[in-house]
Design brief:
mainly alpha; rod-shaped
Length: 86
């Protein structure tokens, strides 16, 4: 009985290769790709967008007309502005 327990303990304690979900295995089999360079922003600047949303001529308009104005002004800058529909 002692021999059997000793053999079982020896089998459990011996070093094994890393499992499929261990960091060692994943680093060896699936190395991380090089990170891509950061994308450059090609949209309008914050100043341009802020000017559209704070235009004094538009603030008195009813909300549907105001939204249409925002969509039109942003479309002129190349931005798709999804106008909420009632």
């Amino acid at each position: 009985m002692r021999r059997l327990l000793a053999a079982l303990l020896a089998a459990l304690v011996t070093p094994r290769r890393p499992g499929r979900h261990s960091a060692e295995y994943l680093a060896a089999v699936h190395p991380l790709p090089d990170p891509a360079p950061p994308a450059r922003w090609n949209g309008p600047s914050a100043r341009e967008v802020r000017a559209i949303f704070s235009d004094e001529r538009v603030l008195h308009l009813p909300p549907p007309q105001r939204e249409r104005h925002y969509a039109h002004a942003l479309a002129a800058l190349g931005v798709v502005y999804d106008v909420p529909t009632p």
